[in-house]
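Student:
Attend to each token:
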Amino acid sequence: MWLVTFFLIALIAVAFSRKLVKEKKALKETHTNKIAELTADFAKEKNTLIGTHTNEKNKLKADFAKERNKLTETHMSEIKTLKEAHTSEINELDTEYLNREKQIKKNIIKPVHKGEKILISKFIGLFKDGKNAEWNESSVYFQLTLDDKKNGDPTDCILDFLIVSPNGLFVIESKLWDGITYIYRNDCSCPIFDEVAEFKDFGKGQNEDTDQKRKTPRIFNAKTIYDKDNGENNIILKRYTNPIAQARKYSKLLSVLLKVKPVKNVIVFHVDEKRDVRIDNKNIKDIGIDSCDTEIDYYSKIITDNGLEELFESDWYTKRDSRYTETVDDVNKIIENLKDSLKLQYRFKLDITNFMTAPFTFDWIEGNITNQHCRHVDFAKVQRREF
């Protein structure tokens, strides 16, 4: 009986096993087909996405290239414009620099006149003497060239000397004029031209101040020249650039450039047997340095080269203005900085440390006085007989 049971169980097991194998095979085929279908769908979707992304990428790439080209063109145009502007500016600066360099070289070979040599000799003598303590601390700049942008011509702004002292700044202009120099501080003391209409403005300074206290004095020069043909002496009037107006201009320019106040000025006339100076009909030799007759105003004074030492001991020179707060070293540094920027140049600087060394050897070529206009005068028309 148990054999029959075992046999039936075996048949059932075989049948069930075959069924499982068949179902397994069917499931496998189903799964294989599903996998193949999914793989095909995935591949199709992948291709679709790749195609879409590729198109978007190409579009973005094209847009980027287009934008880049547009920006490049804009930037290149801006760069070109800036380059042209900068090139123009650089060329202007180069031209300005070359012109200034040319002018500086021209100033370096500018002749030194006899009057300037005389003053240099006196300045060196004061340093050698060593008695004036304030003078020993001073610096003397010779032939300063100022960069006057307003007038545009630096040749009009070459002053003879600038003294930087503990008491202030002083422009020194040297004048060595033959004959007699007449200085009239007001018109009422100058009747020489009363009846000579063509000389109404003779000797006046340009750009005179409307303030009577700052009016530029009238200055002219007279000398006698012997005419061999006629055997007579001819009176010649010479109208130089008014030295007082000239010195005031330099003082103002220096004050603005150095940012230092005040800058006083001194006109030094050289007097000897061939030269004389009269202020309001008074001989300058008979006028003391501290006299108001030699003082044009608070900022300007007229002296002779023989009165130089006396000037440096006078109250006008030694009394320090309350507005002048700089030291000699401060001003020297300002000048050197301006020299580096080509806004100011000078021939040389003289002080206690170098007055015995070159270039103070007086071997320069002496030049002639320039910028003078001569007029011959019929002396019979003139009422005065002081020439």
The chain has seven helices and 13 strands.
